Amino acid sequence: MPDMGRDYRIIGFLCNWCSYGGADAAGVARFSQPTELRIIRVPCSGRVDPMFVAKALLSGADGVLVSGCHPRDCHYTEGNLYARRRLELLRRFLPIIGIDEGRFEYIWVSASEGSRWRDMVTRFSEKIHALGPIPRMAEAAHTLCVLDGMLGVSSAQPDMWTAGDAGHEPRRDALLHMDDYKEVMDGE
Amino acid sequence: MRIGVMVCHCGNNIAATVDCEAVAAAAREFPDVVFATDHMYACSDPGQKTIEQTIRDLKLDGVVVASCSPRMHEVTFRRAVERAGLNRYMFEMANIREHVAWISLDRKRNTEKATDLVRMAVEKLRYDRPLTAKSFEVQKRVLIVGAGVAGIQAALDCAEGGLDVLLVERKQAIGGVMSKLDKTFPTVDCSVCVLGPKMVDVGQHPRITLHTLSEVEELSGYVGNFEVKIRKKSPFVDWNKCTGCGACLEKCPSRKVPDSFNERISMTTAITIPFPQAIPKRAAIDPTVCRQFTKGKCGVCQKVCPADAIDYTMQDEVVTEKVGAVIVATGIDLFDHTKYGEYGGGRYPDVITSLQYERMLSASGPTAGHIKRPSDGQEPKTVVFISCVGSRDRSVDRPYCSNFCCMYTAKQAILTRDHIPDSRAYVFYMDIRATGKGYEEFVRRAQEEYEVQYIRGRVAQIYPKAGPTNGPGGGQLVVRGADTLMGTQVEIAADLVVLAVGAESSKGAPALAEKLRISYDAYGFFLESHPKLRPVETNTVGVFLAGACQAPKDIPASVAQASAAAGKVLALLSKDKLESDPQIAQVQTIRCIGCGKCERTCPFGAIRMRELRDGSKRAEVVETVCQGCGICSVTCPVRAIQLAHFTDSQLLAEVNALCRTWDETTGS
Q1: Residue A109: inside a domain, yes or no?
Q2: Residue A3 counted as domain residue
Q3: Which of A44, A60, A158 has its CB closest to that of B630?
Q4: Does residue B651 belong to the interface with chain A, where contact is any CB pair within 8 Å?
Q5: Confidence class for position A151, pLDDT limits 50, 70, 90
Q6: Residue A11 and residue A57: Cα distance in Å, rounded?
Q7: What's the pLDDT at A138?
Q8: Rg (alpha carbons) of chain A, rounded to whole number
Q9: Which of A25, B179, B554, B612 is the right S-S partner for A114, CB 3.0 to 4.6 Å?
Q10: pLDDT of B517
């Protein structure tokens, strides 16, 4: 693998049944690949919340790759179709919050497609290198707070879900709201 | 929280390109990590003992093992932490072998990446909570899809093991490809004589319910409690009354129907019993060719039937059954050789497929075992066999080897010389793959004892020979090809050309895979869970594979896999109760606003809306139905429904773990 210079920060969300297996298959076949991608295993691409991607990019990731089963081959029948709809919207939305849409991609790789996985990772890593490091946004911290609010996660209560929060008020305001985005946009 | 980390060397697999000690040293600095070490083989007995001992000695709350893929050893290590008294979900794996050590030789970067992955696992573990599995009752019944030799063997094994078996077959009779064969290699045993008794056993076994002319329409549920909808196509004959006497076949006036059992080399009637040994031996009408259906009048079979079994108004029937496990044994179809223009593309009647030839060799076939060329019924004196037609050929998108063609070609060449002693047989081959028991000796016998001429090379073209079109020596085809061992071109005037067509996945295999939620490869063969260690399991728990639907295989291999699958099912259903996977969606009722979006998006109908006393609604997860995909978590507008073990907090913890390190390394 040619040295691609500075290391970039790339996060992959891979579904357990197809793409994670495909990445395993690529490893078993000793297909040499760029090392920058860090993989997070999820049960299904339908589990990938667009907010995870946005959050990663705003937190300094140079690129995010989501990979699931091919359409019609989903372990959960239709999870990847939900993913496709959500992630396509996200891709078009990214430029609005000032992120190059090229930094995010969603692809389909099956468990038997080790070589396809190698090609995809290599291509995506090269693309991120061509795009360069993600610009630091001054308002990112603010946007992140808004996103955290939406996700119901805050540093004060990092684990609102599993820690059990009897006295915690349900966050009805956590609904996606145009005002949230307006706030972000105005900030910029 | 007290976390322990073990970094595995995996012999040299990981340690060669990752500095495992450095990773362990770095891990000691991570929050909540009280212990980190490296080990030669974490999965070995001493490795697991070390994990257990450390948990006990240091009173750990959770363990991270950095080693191979969790698809490989997650279960192993979960058991180990459980033995030491921890909940098995207080464990995380960092995949530093397949995703790190094996994809790059850059030791520095690999070590950094491995450290990052361990950091992610530690961060996720900090948000892990103990989860408890619930147990549920299982149905002690098995559904077997496909009744070829693999399905038959699996059905008999399961039934003998005490399970009720539902055997579903698309065709009218069971037996599959093997029932069409004349002889089997390498013993030249009579195929239907071997298979016939097994077919009879299936028909008579009290525990086996046979559904022929039937297809799986839908499979829902989960391991132990599947619900299957089977569409039973109407045979237009009441099979409870039909005795299989065959009177209708004799009188049916539609006599020009290509016989699919005989590979379309002969004609049959619109109402048929496919072959003499058919199980069930019942007649069925093909409505696409029957005059009663196409022209609206005939009714001959109804008049002649002594049992009054014919019913033209009979409708398809859909039956719903509950089963605990599924074995898929849908077998193969054959490659369509008309894609090869150089072999005539189907224009020459005397270029036939190996299975057509097999029907011709069979004593119960259309020619009663006499070899006749289709064009004029003459006995061929020169027969040319061409191997690898639709196998090992990228130009037709069939790069794989079909496994059994070399052997059946040798068998058919031997049978040709047997049936017509003054004939000559030629085989064009690429390589001979005769790896089974007694196979190589069998090919040798064909070459030496039966004097079959093996020519190593491909055939470039088949074309009609100039001259008379009939009579002895007339109507021949010229087979022109290369002899790569002699370095020459060869031309053979052949009376009959037999194409050793390769195997391809059964028609409709991808559609069935989607119904069963199993995976398939680029060619439609079903994907096993692990190519070496889980060859009969699929990624869907409770669904198993048998026979050539997984990859082309010959009869002994299909039978072996069928028995293996049956063994797996028997072991699975030997328990009265199974444990459910607790990695499922959970609703935080206080947060839920009752919008019902999760109910609409759930692919399994695992979410119900429950009405509270004040009339408002809240979502509720049916625990045994939820499969743990997490689609609902993303759908919920207020994050009230979360997938246990993959919550927003846990996944974001992984994201944050990475982003934080980057902030540190870039100094910003």
Answers
A1: yes
A2: no
A3: A44
A4: yes
A5: low
A6: 9
A7: 55
A8: 18
A9: A25
A10: 87
Interface predicted TM-score of the whole assembly (ipTM), two decimals: 0.80
Distances (CA, A) of A144 to A38, A55, A149: 21, 7, 8
CB-based contact B630 A47, cutoff 8 Å: yes
Number of Cα atoms under 13 Å in the Cβ half of residue B456: 8
**Per-residue model confidence as pLDDT tens digits over A6-21:** 688 999 999 999 999 9
Residues A67 and A143 in one domain: no
pLDDT band at residue A157 using 50, 70 and 90 as cut-offs: very low
* Per-residue 3-state assignment (H helix, E strand, C coil) for B109-154: HHHHHHHHHHHHHHHHHCCCCCCCCCEEECCCEEEEECCCHHHHHH
At B551, which amino acid appears? Answer: A
Structure tokens at B98: 């397949």
Chain A: give the shortest CA distance to residue B189, in Å. Answer: 37
pLDDT tens string A75-129: 888 999 999 999 999 999 999 888 999 999 999 999 889 999 999 999 999 999 9
User: Is residue A1 domain-resident?
Assistant: no
pTM of the prediction? 0.84
The domain of A143 spans 137-187
**Chain B interface includes A17 (CB < 8 A):** yes
**Domain identity same for A21 and A52:** yes
A182 in the same domain as A103: no
**Do strands B33-39 and B424-429 pair parallel, antiparallel, or not at all (unpaired)?**
unpaired
Residue A148 has pLDDT above 80, yes or no: no
Of B510, B631, B648, the CB nearest to A82: B631
- Total beta-carbon pairs less than 8 A apart between chain A and chain B: 199
Q: Give residues with Cβ within 8 angstroms of B506, minimum separation 6.
A: B146, B330, B331, B332, B333, B524, B549
What percentage of chain A has pLDDT greater than the value 90?
Answer: 57
Interface of A with B in 30-49 (CB under 8 A): 30-36, 38-44, 46-49
CB contact, 8 Å: A154 with chain B? no
Interface of B with A in 555-594 (CB under 8 A): 583, 588, 590-591, 593
Which is it for strands B459-464 and B477-483: parallel, antiparallel or unpaired?
antiparallel
Name every chain A residue with its beta carbon within 8 A of the beta carbon of B654.
40
Domains and CATH numbers, chain B: 3-131 (3.40.50), 141-233+316-331+508-572 (3.50.50.60), 247-304 (no CATH), 336-504 (3.50.50.60), 585-644 (3.30.70.20)
Name the domain count of chain A: 2
Name the A residues in 85-114 with CB < 8 Å from any B CB. Answer: 86, 110-112
Question: Which chain B residues are Cβ-neighbours of A46 within 8 angstroms?
Answer: 629-631, 634
Q: Which residues of chain B have pLDDT under 50?
A: 666-668
- Judged against a pLDDT cut of 90, whether residue A154 lies above it is answered with no
- Whether the pLDDT of residue A172 is over 80: the answer is no
Regarding whether A145 and A125 lie in a shared domain, the answer is no
Minimal CA separation from B256 to chain A, in Å: 40
Q: Tell whether B113 is within 8 A of chain A (Cβ).
A: yes
For chain A, give the percent of residues with pLDDT over 70. 69
CA distance B55 to A92: 48
Chain B neighbors of A7, CB-CB under 8 A: 109, 112
> Which pLDDT score is estimated for B44?
95
End-to-end CA distance of chain A: 40
User: Which residue of A48, A120, A162 is the best one to mutate when testing the B interface, meaning the one whose CB has the most B CBs within 10 A?
Assistant: A162
